[in-house]
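agent: user wants the structure for Transcription initiation factor TFIIIB from Brevibacillus panacihumi. delegating to structure tool.
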Amino acid sequence: MEKQSEQCPKCGCKEIGRGKQAGHALVLPDNKFFSLGSPIFHHICTQCGYVLESYVDKPSRFKK
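agent: tool returned. relaying tokens verbatim.
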């Protein structure tokens, strides 16, 4: 899925792709033991590879 409303601040490209980190690349809450993490997604410039933003898929898992 492409996010068309963004533009790369580094090269000006308007084709921004979405990627998901693979493997064991989960973010885990640092204030909880035995909790589930969340995958990390990125919006990436398809021309120069610059990462415009990163976010977790399930932010509610980080509530206290």
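agent: one observation worth passing along. The chain has no helices and five strands.
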